[in-house]
Amino acid sequence: MTSAPHVEPPQRLVRFLGADSPWLARLPGLVRASLERWELTAERVVSPGGRGSLVVLVRRADGSPAALKLRATGAADEAAALSRWEGHGAVRLLDAAPGDGALLLERLHADVSLRSLPDAKATLEAVSALHRLWVSPTPPGVPDDQHPFTTVEEYTARAVEGIRAHVPEEARPLADEALALRSELLADAPENVLLHGDFRQGAVLSGDPGRAHWLVVGPDPLVGERAYDLARLVRDRLHDLAAGSGAPAIARRRVGKLANSLEVGRDRLRAWSLYRAVESGARHIAAGDRADGEALLEFAGWL
After folding, report:
1. Mean pLDDT for the chain?
2. What is the rounded distance in angstroms from the CA atom of residue 220 to the CA atom of residue 195?
3. Rounded CA separation 119/123 (Å)
4. Beta-strand pair 204-206/109-113
5. Which residue in the list 198, 229, 236, 240 is annotated as catalytic?
6. Do residues 77 and 101 make contact, with C-beta atoms less than 8 angstroms apart?
7. What is the pTM for the complete model shown?
8. pLDDT in tens, 227-257
9. Strand partners, 281
10. Which long-range contacts (CB under 8 A, 24 or more apart) does 167-170 make?
11. Class of 11-107 per CATH?
12. CA-CA distance, 159 to 143, in Å (whole number)?
């Protein structure tokens, strides 16, 4: 028997998509359809949740716990990545209806992420979790170039004009450096593995006994080099970092420590970290979040 309570999207999701989002208007119907399709009983909506998805904790017909995730975009890509990982280091995919943006997932402890740990311990666990995801984008026997994922080159190409348009004039040299580094990095990329795409401490949740203690969720999968994936972790807890003393030196030491821990080229990690901070800064400024955008550009300047 299914249960379809009133679905109130978390404010974080509403702010990111906009209150007039057509997808938000369709969301209650998508939830009802998913509950009926998989014979689920809804328990509660996870809050604050993500910026582009809604997660509802549910029970399956046999009483076992699960999580229903509805994505505004990218459900097919997430399903493909989770299928490729088969639960090794990541949440298990139980079922999917990508046409509705619906994923039925193994339930983890949604309120317990690596951000609940001290930063040094969280970083150590994050590195271990991320390392398990870096596999060939296709199963054995299938050529690597026949994967369904967007490449880092394709994905970053979409951001080039945004960087040029939205980085403030006073930070123009930083934007130019970021774009030049992108071109250099892509010209001699050393590998093509499956990447999480948006990896950070908050994307690693606690699992149940019998599974890995920490499991990765919420991929926006790409195919490219490991340094690109690791670069987002370099700036984790940025506001805490910026509030302390010696932030630029600490940020540069982070690059070295993370590069050494996963045998990633230090120069490549620094370059991708700078590029990704500039790209994110431009995106925040374009969305009207100037304070966070400028903080990201400042971080890029430290590198």
Report:
1. 94
2. 8
3. 6
4. antiparallel
5. 198
6. no
7. 0.94
8. 999 999 999 999 999 998 899 999 999 999 9
9. none
10. 167/278, 167/281, 167/282, 167/285, 167/297, 168/285, 168/294, 168/297
11. alpha beta
12. 29
Give the mean model confidence (pLDDT) for residues 62-89: 97
Q: With pLDDT > 70 as the criterion, what percentage of the chain qualifies?
A: 98
- Token pair of 254, please? 């982070």
Residues of the chain with CATH 3.90.1200.10: 112-302
Contact predicate 113/218, CB 8 Å: no
Is 1's pLDDT higher than 70? no
Among this protein's residues, is 229 annotated catalytic?
A: no
Q: How many CA atoms lie within 13 A of 21 on its CB side?
A: 19
> For residue 48, what pLDDT band results from cuts at 50, 70 and 90?
confident
CA end-to-end distance (rounded Å), the chain: 55
Query: Looking at domain 112-302, which of 3.40.50.2000, 3.90.1200.10, 3.40.50.12780, 3.30.470.20 is its CATH number?
Result: 3.90.1200.10
Both tokens of 24, joined, read 């938000």
Angle between helices 247-261 and 290-302 (to 10 degrees): 70
Which element (helix H / strand E) includes 65? strand 65-71
Q: What residue ranges of the chain are covered by domains with CATH 3.30.200.20?
A: 11-107
Residue 201 has pLDDT above 60, yes or no: yes
Whether the pLDDT of residue 50 is over 90: the answer is no
DSSP conformational letter for 88:
S
Instruction: Classify 193 as helix, strand or coil.
Output: strand
Write the pLDDT tens digit of every residue in 123-177. 999 999 999 999 999 998 888 889 999 999 999 999 999 999 999 999 999 999 9
